[in-house]
Write a structure and sequence with these properties.
The structure holds 2 protein chains of 2 kinds.
Chain A: H1 5-30, E1 59-62, E2 67-75, E3 78-80, E4 84-87, E5 91-97, E6 103-107, E7 113-116, E8 122-127, E9 132-137, E10 150-156
Chain B: H1 2-5, H2 12-15, H3 17-48, H4 60-92, H5 99-121, H6 146-176, H7 184-215, H8 224-235, H9 237-252, H10 254-258, H11 265-278, H12 295-329, H13 347-370, H14 375-378, H15 383-412, H16 419-445, H17 469-497, H18 527-553, H19 567-589
Subcellular location (chain B): Membrane
Family (chain B): Belongs to the heme-copper respiratory oxidase family.
Pfam family, one (chain B): COX1
Chain lengths: 167, 590
């Protein structure tokens, strides 16, 4: 088969670019430690979330010195708890599930983003930085009231943050 | 340019009048879908930007479903079956084996479309229990009326029978031409259809085994992650089902309208074989953010996706090289000076060239989507529709419209009503999409979600990194309006052409490639081999993820809640239906 020289060069450059993309993604996943949504959480009965120790009462819990876990239920058309309140400069792991249809959970404008699928628990860990307020949006169509489904993530200054349980 | 239009050659209509009628019918179906799709498109644009709200925000999703289904299923696939029938008949130079069979698959596709459309448009009427507000992806537990799933199944059967029609023509041709290379256009058609048959496995299982019985109330629940994964098994290759007819036109028609010849026939074959191999085992890249799928499987999808860039990058080379060859044949010189020698006044050329340019931009935003970890920033934001309005919405749609200006006279023996309007039309589409898609990409980066009626929330505001939300909305509205105007100009230009008198000699024969099929290794035409490898790749990419999903959640679990609740309809139907059948059977037995 005759391949023109220019076309050979193009082919080689294209392959280099493809391998380059794969390398950067792998680097991000391993060296930088961008964690993927995966399958490490067990499935859950979406019809019995009210009996589940984590989701019966959606809440934020402190699990380590600077570590928090947020158990979040996304359902037509609210997020609970709302707002989600955590301190700055901490590690927060979100566990998100749905009792009804598929939803999205994205801290608007950030890469804290996951699908929420009934029967599955999405786990994602973020590092909070500066204090502030962020919107949370459902970014998957979930029914006729989808556009009103929003929540709020409030990141408090560390010295002003207190868990309600401790009060 | 008029000398180029009247070549004195017989047209496709002169040579194959019956087939030309089928092709025209398929293209009209496609353009009717385009018109309706454009109408729903502009309603959405004005609603989202809060310029004009004709419907309630609840009905927005009915409109969005109709826009999506009409554009990416009806418009694209009716065009595909039209252009592929033309390509097979033309390149094998023989009529279809049985024109009644050809009309049968066309009829099934129309029937399926109408069924699905009734189900979707039922969403506007609250008093009846029919709706399909499930968007193009119909993710369970969102539930549509059984007419929607049934219509989709019948439409798909129509496309499978169409493929069988083309295989039948090729088989008959092969008996009469033993040992000859498959003509390039027929080769492209057959490879596309092999990919389509493999891809269809996913959606067939999803619809026939799970969603249709579920919508009828025969089964109580489905596994939402499983049906979603089966959807994307089909949902990514369908992207190539839109693109491959555009590629066929870029490889075989664009060199002709540029005034030259295709650069390389063998590489065109390689590109199509790569699509067959790599289009399907990548669907999980739409599910990077799905819980319940291991990150290892996502990594496999990522790797396959990145290699799937290769055939598109090769196409970019060949298309530009063929255009340059055409320009130099027309007297163009210089490193870039040849660009001026291209036939920019010809809407067929300009449309396809602009479509190719937009495809390059769409390709780059696609590479970002494909990047496993960058994807987290843009997943389900407005960035994503920004991306696919460049690919399917421009690379494909604009190529189809431009190619129509070239092909339509050969199907009707009438020139296009107005070439200046046609030229303005393709440029309007390009400008409109540049504005709209740019705004969508920028909005996506600040987190504005896709698929929502009102991206204005009570508790917070989106903060653009530059410019303002008002500017982005303005771009969306102006872009959307130009696109609607462009669609209207396109369809009216064709409708007005009907009244023109017939002329003869509008045929446009296609020249052979510079490097012809004899330079291509014979193995490229071994369809069985490529199909077998494609199947192995699909099995490798999908067996473990699917097994794991079923193992975790069960075939029919873990449920969720169907929305909207239509189980009652299904069980009522069954209650009526079951005694009737039993009565009928017992009556018949007596």
């Amino acid at each position: 088969m005759h391949i023109h020289n220019y076309e050979k060069i193009w082919l080689v450059l294209a392959m280099i670019m493809i391998v380059g993309f794969l390398t950067t993604v792998t680097y991000g996943a391993t060296a930088v430690g961008i964690e993927m949504i995966s399958d490490e959480e067990d499935t859950i009965d979406p019809g019995a979330l009210d009996e589940d120790p984590r989701f019966a009462e959606p809440r934020v819990e402190q699990v380590g010195e600077n570590e928090y876990e947020a158990y979040v239920v996304a359902q037509q058309y609210i997020f609970s708890p709302d707002p989600i309140e955590v301190p700055a400069n901490s590690t927060v792991t979100f566990y998100v599930t749905s009792p009804d249809v598929i939803h999205g959970f994205q801290v608007a404008g950030t890469n804290a983003n996951t699908m929420v699928i009934p029967g599955e628990v999405a786990k994602l860990t973020v590092e909070t930085e500066e204090p502030g307020e962020h919107g949370i949006v459902c970014n998957e169509y979930c029914g006729s009231g989808h556009h009103v489904m929003e929540g709020k993530l409030i990141i408090h200054p560390e010295d002003e943050f207190e868990m309600e349980d401790d009060e | 340019m008029s000398s180029a239009i009247e070549s004195g050659e017989p047209t496709f209509l002169d040579r194959f009048p019956q087939e030309a009628k089928v092709v025209r019918s398929a293209l009209w179906s496609s353009f009717i879908a385009l018109t309706l799709g454009a109408l729903f498109g502009i309603i959405q644009t004005l609603h989202r930007t809060d310029v004009l709200r004709v419907f309630s925000s609840g009905n927005y999703y009915t409109i969005l479903t109709a826009h999506g289904v009409l554009m990416v299923v009806s418009f694209t696939i009716f065009f595909l079956v039209g252009i592929y029938t033309w390509a097979v008949v033309r390149s094998l130079d023989r009529p279809v084996e049985d024109i009644r069979y050809t009309w049968t698959w066309y009829g099934l596709m129309v029937l399926g479309t109408l069924m699905a459309l009734v189900a979707i448009l039922g969403g506007f009427i609250d008093s009846i229990d029919i709706s399909a507000d499930v968007l193009f992806t119909f993710y369970a537990p969102l539930q549509a009326h059984p007419l929607f799933y049934g219509g989709l199944a019948i439409f798909l059967i129509g496309t499978w029978l169409a493929g069988a029609d083309w295989f039948r023509s090729w088989y008959a041709w092969k008996q009469e031409n033993p040992g000859e290379r498959i003509p390039l256009q027929t080769f492209m058609v057959l490879i596309t259809m092999l990919m389509w048959y493999i891809a269809s496995i996913g959606i067939t299982i999803a619809v026939v085994i799970f969603l249709l019985p579920w919508s009828l109330g025969i089964i109580d629940q489905v596994n939402p992650l499983l049906t979603r994964t089966l959807f994307w098994f089909w949902g990514h290759p369908v992207v190539y089902f839109w693109l491959m007819p555009a590629y066929l036109l870029w490889y075989t028609v664009l060199p002709k309208v540029s005034g030259g010849r295709l650069f390389s026939d063998p590489l065109a074959r390689v590109v199509f074989v790569l699509f067959l191999l790599l289009s399907t085992p990548v669907g999980i890249h739409h599910q990077y953010l799905d819980p319940g799928i291991a990150d290892g499987f996502k990594f496999i999808a990522l790797t396959n996706t990145m290699f799937l860039l290769l055939p598109s990058l090769l196409t970019a080379f060949t298309v530009v090289a063929s255009m340059e060859h055409g320009a130099r044949q027309r007297g163009g010189t210089g490193l870039l000076g040849w660009l001026r020698a291209l036939p920019w006044a010809n809407p067929a050329f300009t449309g396809m060239a602009l479509a190719g340019l937009m495809f390059a931009a769409g390709g780059f935003s696609g590479m970002i989507n494909a990047g496993l970890n960058i994807n987290y920033l843009v997943h389900n934001t407005l960035w994503v529709p920004g991306h696919f309005h460049l690919t399917v919405g421009t690379a494909v749609a604009l190529t189809f419209m431009a190619a129509t200006y070239w092909l339509w006279p050969q199907l009707t023996n009438k020139p296009i009503f107005s070439r200046p309007i046609a030229l303005a039309q393709v440029i309007l589409w390009f400008v409109g999409m540049a504005l709209m898609s740019n705004a969508m990409h920028v909005a996506g980066l600040i987190g504005i979600p896709r698929r929502t009626a009102e991206p204005q929330y009570d508790g917070f505001d989106f903060i653009p990194t530059f410019g303002s939300i008002a500017e982005l909305d303005l771009q969306l509205v102006v872009g959307g309006t130009l696109l609607t105007l462009s669609a209207i100009l396109f369809v009216s230009n064709l409708v007005l052409s009907i009244s023109l008198p017939k002329v003869s000699g509008l045929g446009q024969p296609l020249p052979p490639a510079l490097s012809g099929p004899d330079d291509a290794p014979k193995v490229l035409d071994n369809l069985k081999l490529w199909t077998a490898i494609a199947l192995v790749l699909v099995i490798l990419a999908y067996t473990l993820p699917l097994a794991s999903i079923v193992d975790r959640g069960g075939l029919f679990g873990p449920g969720g809640t169907p929305y909207p609740t239509m189980i009652e309809f299904g069980s009522t139907l069954l209650e009526i239906y079951t005694p009737l059948t039993t009565d009928w059977i017992s009556g018949w037995l007596q």
